[in-house]
Structure formats: C-alpha cells, structure tokens
Amino acid sequence: MQRLTLVLAPTGYGKTATITDWLGGDEDGLFPVRWVRCSTAGPHKLWAALTKTLAPYSSSVVEAGSESAAAVVEIARELHTALTLVIDDFHFATDAATDMALAELSAESPKLTLIVIGRSVTLLDGPLVSATTRVRLIGAADLSLTPEETSELVENLQVPASPSLTAAMARSEGWPLAIRAALNLGADGLYIETAEGRIWADGSAAQQFDPLSNLNAFAMASLEIMDAHARHVILAASQIHAISVNQIRDILGGDESAALAATRYLTELGFLVSSPSPGPQEYRCHSSVRSAFSEYAVHTIDFAQRRRLYDGRAREIADTAPYTAFRLFCAAEEYDAAAITFAQNFTLITDEGEPCLQTLRALPEAVLLKHPTFTAALLFFEFPLVGSAPARLRYLLRIWQRGIDFHLPAGIASPAGPTHLQLLCESMVFNRVLGDLDTAKSLMLHIESRLAPDRGPQLPLSAEPVAEAPAVLPGNGSLSVFYREIAGTAIAVGDFGRARRSLKRLRRLSELKISTPWHGFPHASTRTVTDPDSGRNWLLAALSELAFTDIIDGHVRRAGELIHEYDELTRSSGAAAPGISWVGAEVARAHIAQENRDGVLLQQAVDRLSPISDRLEPWPMLLIAEAAMMRESRGTALALAHFVSGLEDGQRNTPIPLAWNKYVVTFEAMLNSSIGNLARAESLLAGNDPDEPAFRLEQARLALFSGNDVEALLLAQSVGDPGATKRQRVDRRLITAVAEWGCDRKSDAVACLGAAASLVDKYFLPAMLVSVPFEQLREVAVAARAAGVCDIVDALDAIPQHARASRFEQLTEMELRTLLAITEHRNANQAAASLFITAGTVKKHLAAVYRKLGVRDRDAAILRAGRMGLLD
User: Fold this and answer.
1) Per-residue exposure over 578-615, b if at least 16 CB sit within 10 Å of its own CB, e if not
2) Is 137 in a helix, a strand, or coil?
C-alpha cells in the first residue's frame, strides 16, 4: 500500500543498515529486493542503473541507449513481478527533475515498491510530491534513539555513570553518530568483545574517559575537515539560537551558490538542523557540537563580527521571538533596540524569570539610567525576592526616577517615542508609590484611553495564522502589566469600578492565552514559558488583585470566592503570580480570616508576607487585619496599642503610602472612639477632607460616642451610597440606626438596622457590628427582632465583652465642675470649698461621674475624662 518510502536523515543515523535489517538484503524470492546505489556521477547514471535493474522483471522491450527517466517509467509499467527497489545515497542524484520522475515512477507502477535513502532531497519530501503521491517519510526523529533507548544502550555497555555522561547523552539528542563519539565506541582500550557484544573494559584507559570531552573532540575534528564557507556558517550558527538563509548568505558575502552549498553540506553532515519557520528557512546548530563550536568562535571571531551577527538575527526575529531578540540585542550592546523590544513585550519577556533577571543584572548603570524600562523590570523581579537588600531597592528606585525624569520632562506632554506608553505607565507607578495620586490618576486615565479596544493593540483571536494578518502582534506582550498597574492605581485613588474593569480585562486576556496560544511561539525562540503558562500566572495576578479590591471595598464574600479560585489554580497547575502581585491575595486572606475569626489562617497570611514586610505597599492593611483580630481576642485597648506600635515599627522601613493613609486614620480613630478616647479620635480626624466619605463617617461615629445623636445622624445621612464603599454603606446604616434610636425615632432606627443587617449578610461583614456602641445597638436589635425586620441579637451577644464598644453617659454641668475641681485640688474638702458646696455633695457628684464614665476611682475618672476631651 505504501508505494514510496523516503528515508531521509543526515549522516550517522544508520539509514542503510536499518533498511537492510528491515528488508533482509537483496535476495531473490517471492518479493525480490533490488538495491541501486547512486554515485557522484549524477542522475544520468541513476537512470542507467535503474534500467539495468528493472529490465529483467518487465515485459517491456528495452531499446539500446534508452536510459532516460521516461524509459524507466515505461519499463516499470510492464513489471510482471512485484519488486522492492531501494535507491541508496540518493543525495548524490537528487534534483527537481529527478525527484519528480521518481514520484511518477512510484505512481505509474502498481507492482513497484520504491524506497529512497538519502541525506537530502530536493522535492521528494515536499507538498509538490505528496499532493499526488503517497509518501511515507522516515526521518531523523524516527531513527534517533529515544532517551530510554540511550539509557538502555549505556546500561548494556556497562559504561560507568557520571555527570559528564548524562550531559553528553542529553546533548546528543539521540543522534547515533554523536552517541558513538561521546562513548568512543571504537576504542579497544575502553571496550572488550564478549559473547553478548562489546562491554566496558574498565582498564587504565578508563581513567581518562570523559564523554563531554569526546563530544568536543568530535566537533573540533569535524571542523578541521570543513571548507572555509561551511566553517564560517557553522561557527556563526553556534553563536545564536537559529540562523536564517538570509544571514547565511550575508555571512558569505551574498554568494547564493556558496550559501546553498555550505548549507547542504552542513545539514547532510547533521551539524545544521532545520528549524520550522513561517518565513525563510532557518537552521540551528546541533546541540552535540554547539558548545565546542561556540567556545571556539568566541576566541576566533572578533566582537565586531559577532555583534553584527547578534544584531542581524535579533532584528529578524524581534516581532516573532521578542525574548530571544532582547537577549541578542543586549549581547550586541544594541540597547536602544533592546529597550524598544522590552517595552513592547514587557510581560512576555519578564515571564522568563531568572534568565531574564540575569541578563538585566549584567547591564551597566549607564544603560539603566538611559533606559528606565530595564530598571522597572529589575524592580519587578527584585521586590519579591527576600535576598534583595533594601539598599539595593532604594538604589534602583533612584536610578528609575532619574531615567523617567529624563525621558518624560513634561510628563504626558513629553515628545512621544517608541517606548512612550511604557514610560508613562512606569511614571504612573512611580508617582503612585511616591504618593502623588493626582498625577498618577491623570496618567492612569490617559493610558487607559490609549488601550481602548478601538485604538489599542490587537489581541490574537485564533491559534491559527491568518494569511492576510501580519506576523507581528504589537503591544500584546505588555498588555497584562498595563492592566494590572492601571488597576493598582485605581485602587489607590479609590476607583474600585475602574480597578475591577481593568482586572477583568486582565483575566480575559489571561484566559485567552490559555485557550488559544499565539501561533508564533515557539518559532525561533528560546522562550520557555508558553502562552498557557503565562496565562495561568497572570490569571493568578488578576484573581489576587480582584480579591484585594473586594476586601478594600468591603465585599468579603466575593473576595473569599476569588481566593478559593486562586488557591485551586495554584494547587492544580503549580502556577505562580508574577512579581509581587500575589501580595494582594495574602492581604485579602488576612481580612477574610479576621472576619471568620480564624487565627490560624491569619497567621498563615502574615507568615507569607513577613519576609518582604519592609517593601509592602499595602502593609498598613495587613496591620489593620491583625489589630481587628486582636480586638476580638484580647480587647479594643490592646488592639489599639498593637496597631499604634505596628505603625511606628512599619514606618521605620516604609512610610505609610498616601493611598492607605485614610484607612489608617479612620481605623485608629474608630478604635479610639470605641474606648472613649474621643479627644485622640478628634485630633486624628482634624485637618482631613471633611467631604471624604470615610472621614465624614468617622466624624459621625465620634459624635455618636460623644452622645450627640443629632449631629451623628446628620453627618451619617450626608453620606450617600454613590461613591461610598460597601463597608461605608454598612457603617452609615449602623451609625444612623443607633443615632435615630437615641433621637427617639424608633421605627426609622429598626428599618435602618434591617438594611444594615442585609448588607452585612450579603457582603459578609460581621466584624463591623463592633464599630458602634454595643448597648444601644443591642436595644435596636431587640426591637428589630420583635418587629420581624432582622435578627442579629445572637450575633451581638457572641461579641466578647472586652471587644464591645461602650458609649459613656454625658455629665451634667455640676458633675463636670465637680470633676474639674477634684482634678485641681485632689481633695474633697478643698474641692467642696472651691465650689461652695459640702464635701458630701462633692462625693455624691463624683459617684455619678464614676458610674457614667464606667470607672471605679478618681484617677481613672480623670484619665477617662481627659481622653473624652472633657478635661484639658
């Protein structure tokens, strides 16, 4: 059924021996096998040999001198015996006409089975032949030894294991000739003949046995027998990961025939291996000889020549293999081109991790100053590394700032260049870290508009190339990091809707990479992280930042679902969120643990973040989770002490970023209000924007704990849901419910508490129930349960006594004057004299003061009154 079989492989793959073993020689029998071996004499001799071989089996009359392809086809048509014809060493006879004639011969003769063996062919392995003729191709991949077969061979030979042997076998890629060379199978001093075959002799010669050295010797000996053209080509190919026919032609001075001859010679010997390419044919140096050739080339080819080689190759593949192009540009010291490639493919290049980091770390300081994108990438890698010293990070930040200032002297209005959008993104991040949120926000809006679907870079929509579409996918290699940083800035300025929109785009892009990877990979690339790998890593980044956004906004339930999805993806795929984007997931985990009163889960998140606590941008948010958990377990006063000391310790390493300052201030003010330290809460809130919902609600809470229900109600009701976070919506309703109850608006208070309870359940925010006076809230809750509106009484009763917030009764004017007098005189009789009342009356007023302030003695009353702002 398979009439034409092509055995095509370079020298050293045992092609002839394999077919001989398969067919059993050229014996006559029921199905005769005949061999014809080509020579350097060319196709004419081939047709003469075929005529002589086939004529005895054909009914066709052979005329004298008929030794053409047409005559052979005519003879084959009249075959009366089924015959297998093997044409060996066909590389000596191949050309376009001969290949097509052989295809016709196979098709025209139903009794002829044709097997062609050669190192190279012209058309027989191409679609022009296979479109009309059924061709079975046995290539180098079929004739190579598999890793298992190689191991079995070494084991049967009893060669002693060593790292050199393992490395040499891996480099051989199953090429039998390279394996023989590495094992030095022809050396009698190393092997002995036995009944079972050759085995390791373990004699004196074995002491010098080194398979890698043998491979290198094989390579250098091969180099000696090459002509100058072939030597130039193979040394160039050893320096880069793949070489195109255009580069081969350039290396040989534009000589087309010399380039073809050298390429054919090297591929037939197996030193050049064809690589798949959608464009001009490309080749790579075989790994068994590449190391030796490359080392030799470094010492024999001057840097100027190698630089041209690297640069030329990088420009050929910059659009289809940007990571490899970036490395080659750096090797050629073409840093401008390297920076452009990096800026357009930031995500794709940084996906490679450690190899990319090594390339970046080798760049001199002057290059980092000129090209801030390289510094941004270094920071991207080094921020999450525990071993990166703070001094190193500060040094990189200074260089980064200088580079950005140089390229963007006028910010957005600076002249645009090929890296302009990337530099604007870097400037946005830097300004966000510095606390200039207004500038960061304006840059965010500008960048997002540039990435709009109608103007932004196009994404690959199919795994198959489209004929009319260019091979280049501009900007796709950086979109992930753009989306993530836009979201980070949106979170910092409180625009959670924009943050979610950008993160959902990141999620869709990541899922697209997983489901339909770009067809351009892995052509001509040394990239190791595939599109699906990258997609899973960046999907984790999207999930992490979405969970963090929901935690800040107050949707704890959805954050929990996202963290579960994050953990499942990590467990099932082994993926890891890139850079420092995993931090958001751990901060979210800490807050989820706090809401669930899960100390073990909280400690898990803290332990993961502790090694890089000196460089966490949202570090105050982790501290808030810890303090909130401590309030539950040890009381509000100790939680406040832990929070304040944590702030002091944290700011020694990293000042509180402006983006998180309002969360710090409002949380500390809430804790102070909850323990009656109203003066401290008031001082914390002073000077902040009174129109900011967070600060206005905190002022309302302060008024509530001060006993001023009317002011608390007015302030809380002035905060609307639009523009408020989910936490603030719950907070507003809880404050309003307690304030309305105090204003004797019972039904309104019950309805408002019902709305708050609904949101607490929807978003899972049970911890917010401790943020208003406990006794008053419980009174409203009891009434709400009786009215059938909601039932949170059991949840309130479950709050530990030490975590409950208390509101102290207001003092009468006389009680306050008595407290002031006892503070000044420290004696009941003297205080009574100063007030013109009796000592008994002073004691009666002091007893009322102690009861209202919840204290037992004079000193505690003075301290509590001072904290409440009743005393100077």
Assistant:
1) bbbbbbbbbbbbbbbbbbbeeeebbeebbeebeebeeb
2) strand
Give the separation between CA 502 and CA 487, rounded to whole angstroms.
6
pLDDT at 520: 58
**The pair of three-digit structure tokens given for residue 197, joined into one six-digit string:** 């075959």
Burial class (CB in 10 A: 0-12, 13-18, 19+), 146: exposed
Query: Encoding tokens for residue 734?
Result: 């809880």
Angle CA(369)–CA(370)–CA(372) in degrees, nearest 5? 70
Q: Which residues face 191 on adjacent strands?
A: 200
Number of Cα atoms under 13 Å in the Cβ half of residue 463 = 9
What are the angstrom distances between the C-alpha of 222 and each of 130, 218, 227, 229? 35, 6, 10, 14
Contacts of 350 (CB under 8 A, 6+ apart): 356, 377, 380, 381, 481, 578, 579
Q: Cα separation of 265 and 143, whole Å?
A: 20
- Taking Cα atoms as reference points, which of 139, 169, 142 lies closest to residue 153? 169
Q: How far apart are CA 638 and CA 643, in angstroms?
A: 8
Q: Which amino acid is located at 847 in the chain? A: A
Query: Which of helix, strand or coil describes residue 284?
Result: strand
pLDDT tens readout for residues 522-565: 567 888 998 899 999 999 999 999 999 999 999 999 999 999 99
Q: Are 835 and 842 in contact (CB under 8 A)?
A: yes
Quickly tell me which residue has 């009893």 as its tokens.
Answer: 158
CB 557 within 8 A of CB 583: no
8 Å CB contact between 568 and 773: no
How many angstroms separate the CA atoms of 453 and 777, rounded? 50
The pair of three-digit structure tokens given for residue 443, joined into one six-digit string: 């840059």
Q: How far apart are CA 44 and CA 400, in angstroms?
A: 70
CA dihedral 553, 556, 557, 561 (to 10 degrees): 90
pLDDT of residue 458: 40
- Sequence-separated (6 or more) residues with CB below 8 Å from residue 159: 165, 183, 200
Burial of 30 (0-12, 13-18, 19+ CB in 10 A): exposed
* Beta pairing class for 282-285 and 243-244: antiparallel
Separation CA 112–CA 98 (nearest Å): 17
CA 274 to chain centre: 31
Which uninterrupted H or E stretch holds 403? helix 390-407
Count CA atoms closer than 13 A to 150's CA, side-chain side: 24
Place of tokens 């200074």: 398
Closest CA to 654 of 663, 646, 662: 646
Q: Are 736 and 717 in contact (CB under 8 A)?
A: yes
Burial string for 172-190 (b: 16+ CB within 10 Å, else e) reads bbbbbbbbbbbbbeeeeeb
Separation of CA 539 from chain center: 9
Q: What is the pTM of this model?
A: 0.83
SS3 labels along 84-123: EEEEECHHHCCCHHHHHHHHHHHHHCCCEEEEEEECCCCC
What is the token pair recorded at 842? 């002073």
Report pLDDT for 521. Answer: 61
Contacts 24+ apart (CB under 8 A), 529-537: 529/351, 529/352, 529/353, 533/351, 533/575, 534/347, 534/348, 534/351, 534/480, 534/510, 535/509, 535/510, 535/511, 536/510, 536/569, 536/573, 536/575, 537/351, 537/575, 537/576, 537/577, 537/578
Residue numbers of the chain with a pLDDT score lower than 50: 454-475
Contacts of 62 (CB under 8 A, 6+ apart): 51, 55, 71, 75
Say whether 724 sits in a helix, a strand or coil. Answer: coil
b or e along 124-138 (b: 16 or more beta carbons within 10 Å of the residue's beta carbon)?
bbeeebbeebebeeb
How far apart are alpha carbons 832 and 433 in whole angstroms? 59
